[in-house]
Amino acid sequence: MCKTLKWYSPLVRLTSWSPARKGATLTIVLSPLLLPLFLLHLASFGAAGQAKAPQASSPNLRNCLDGLRSCDITELSARELEAVAASSRRRNVDRCLAGTTGCDPTRLDPAGLAQALRNASRRNFDTCRELSSRCNPLTLEPEQSKEVVRTFERRNVERCLNGNADCDPTRISSKTDLEAIRKAALRRNLSRCMGGSTQCDPLSLSAQEQQAVAKESARRNREDCMNGSGSCNPLALNDAEKSQMGRELRARNLQSCLARSASCDPSLLTAPEMAQVAAARPRGRKK
Questions:
Q1: DSSP assignment string, 54-123
Q2: E strand or H helix at 27, and its extent?
Q3: Cα–Cα distance list, 13 to 17, 27, 145, 276, 287 (Å)
Q4: Contacts of 108 by beta carbon, 8 Å cutoff, 6+ apart
Q5: What is the CA radius of gyration of the chain?
Q6: What is the H or E stretch that residue 18 is in?
Q7: For residue 29, what are the contacts with CB-CB under 8 A and spacing of at least 6?
């Protein structure tokens, strides 16, 4: 049995309807005016029918997405489990790329594993260039090894120039660097000698430097003697300096006596100075 139904409209035309045993066939012809609207409706219907990613609508799902221990996977749906697994994979990739603890390289795909290895090689290269004890020289490329050796030699030269205790002069082969290090050591020794340091090595001084050091030592001793310092060596003073030191000593003693200080030495006072000290003492009230 076949029936044909025709219906005319300026927008829609139903051309045929043929029921069959297994179903029915319905043919609709749209007017060109409604075709764009019909296609737009179909597109929006298809987009609405697509599966949406699960949102963290519950605290448990949020904990699972963040990888917290308080996550209870038994309360998750199938879609939520897929989202949690994807979040876990992303966190593992980030940890492996950054070289942090918790990385599981067995969960990486070939591309991610290759990138993680490149990042690890670059971090180790930077660590070796910093001369850190965490450096693994066995994983360096040949060019990286050469660069690390050059960095070590350059920093060793700098340490030797500065007189550091960890300087290794046996690793220096350049005659220019060795000469620069020798001159730097001589300058440091001259500075110590000029400052009166006990670490001064007078045997390393030239004749001109010895004269300069002796002159500076005499000047410091003269100042110490004039100021009454305990480090004064009066035997190193000449007659004029000894006379001046005596005058400075008496002047300081007079001031101590006038101030009634315990450091006053009356034996150093002259007769006029004794009278001056006596006049400066406060007199008692008359009864």
A1: PP--SHHHHHHHTT-TT--GGG--HHHHHHHHHHHHHHHHHHHHHT-TT--GGGS-HHHHHHHHHHHHHH
A2: strand 24-30
A3: 12, 9, 81, 138, 144
A4: 92, 93, 96, 116
A5: 49
A6: strand 12-19
A7: 12, 13, 14, 15
Other C-beta atoms within 10 Å of 14: how many?
Answer: 14
- The residue behind tokens 């670059």 is 122
Q: What digits encode the pLDDT tens for the residues 213-265? A: 999 999 999 999 988 888 889 888 898 988 888 888 889 888 889 888 888 88
DSSP-derived secondary structure letter, 7: B
Alpha carbons 159 and 168: distance in angstroms, whole number: 8
Residue type, 255: Q
Amino acid (1-letter code) at residue 261: S
Residue 34 has pLDDT above 60, yes or no: no
Residues 6+ apart with CB under 8 A from 89: 107
Asked if 181 contacts 161 with a C-beta cutoff of 8 angstroms, the reply is yes
Q: 16: which strand partners?
A: 27
The pLDDT score that the predictor gives to residue 57 is 64
Rounded CA gap, 208 and 214, in Å?
10
Neighbours of 130 (CB within 10 A): 12
